[in-house]
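Quarterly update from the structural biology core.
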Amino acid sequence: MPKRFENPIPLPTAVFDGLETVQETGEAHMQDATKVQAIATRLGYPEAAAWIEDHPHEYQEGLFRGFVTAKESTHG
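Predicted structure, tokenized:
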């Protein structure tokens, strides 16, 4: 299995929704964390912007490993 699909980063639902919405706009490359934060804030997702600020390493890792909502991250 490609590393990209192993161990996705779990996120609170509001953060996941915010990142997904920013990505769907196509206004920024997701690797540009500062721009992603600005767009998330403008679109009404301050939780997503704050999470990126507080978790820069996890954000970068998630760009390669993927993100899931925290409730989806159970291992079985």
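Residues 4 and 62 are 9 Å apart (CA to CA).
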